[in-house]
Amino acid sequence: MHLPQPLLRAIFKKRLNRFLGLAELEDNEVEVYIPNPGRLQELLVPGATIYIHENPKPGRKTRFDLILVEADGVLVSIDSRMPNRLFEEALEQGALKGFEGFHLEGREVQFDGSRIDFLLEGPRPMLVEVKSCTLVEEGCALFPDAPTERGRRHLRNLTYRPRGFEAAIVFIIQRGDAVKFRPNSRLDPEFTEALRGPIGAGWRSTPTYPMSPLNRSRLSMRFPSRYLINANVDSIGLRYLSFYVKSLGEGALDYGNDF
After folding, report:
1. What are the residue ranges spanned by the domains of the chain?
2. Domain spanning 8-77 has what CATH number?
3. What secondary structure letter does DSSP report for 170?
């Protein structure tokens, strides 16, 4: 997947609200749109190196979009819209084991009072919710980075889906330094508890598997199957957000002591 070009190096100064930040670009202060309502407290810290894209469309309040942030030498995509696009790309390429024979039927599907990201058609209809994960601690990706009632509601919706429907939740880790995933029970124990339902309610489960590389990236696998999807930024040209599939073994999914 292509990142918007060109990307301009800037310094993050502070967050003004959920969607607006202040940055320093070539000795000038500029406001930047933050396409992610999450807290991102470990990423959007004063002095952090960020990469922004000029997008001077009519009617916009800001000229720039915040695309990447550098954290401990790792480039992190913070655009919460990217994971859905990556999932669609992976589905079209046939890159996700367990989704063979499925194709996209609808986006933002109304279901039981919520909007579910995707409806797939195949051997059976499947509802898919995609989540963006940017928090990584000591190689472990954690979701969420703040309490999420919306996330808990989506899990309930999918757990109690109509008979004949399959369901999947896909966590896309928008950085390349995670080697396992864990629901963040410290910040949202209710979300962790809600994941118990899918594990025991007939969600799709496939074994770990090796696959050939796609483009350039670090690793991938999916949950609740035994793989995660890690997005990785092309650190040389800052042009691509891509991934490949690699078997990580059962340890890739870490439920934590409380799960």
Report:
1. 8-77, 82-252
2. 2.40.50.580
3. E
Segment 26-77, tens digit of pLDDT? 999 999 999 998 899 999 999 999 999 999 888 888 999 999 999 988 889 9
The total number of residues shown for the chain amounts to 259
Q: Identify residue 170 by its one-letter amino acid code.
A: V
Fold of 82-252: Trna Endonuclease; Chain: A, domain 1 (3.40.1350)
Instruction: Report d(CA 157, CA 148) in Å as an integer.
Output: 14
Give the single-character DSSP code of 217: -
Average pLDDT over residues 138-147: 87
**CA dihedral (210, 215, 218, 221) positive or negative:** negative
Q: Using one digit for the tens of pLDDT, what is the confidence trace for 71-105?
A: 988 889 999 988 898 889 888 888 777 788 899 99
pTM of this structure? 0.78
DSSP 3: P
Task: Tell me how far apart the alpha carbons of residues 91 and 253 are, in angstroms, rounded to a whole number.
Answer: 22
Q: What is the pLDDT of residues 168-189, one digit of tens each?
A: 888 888 888 887 778 888 989 8
Residues 180 and 248 sit within 8 Å (Cβ to Cβ): yes
Radius of gyration of the chain from its Cα atoms, rounded to whole angstroms: 18
CB 192 within 8 A of CB 183: yes
First to last CA, the chain: 34
- Helices first, then strands: H and E counts in the chain: 4, 17
Q: 216: how many CB neighbours lie within 10 A of its CB?
A: 14
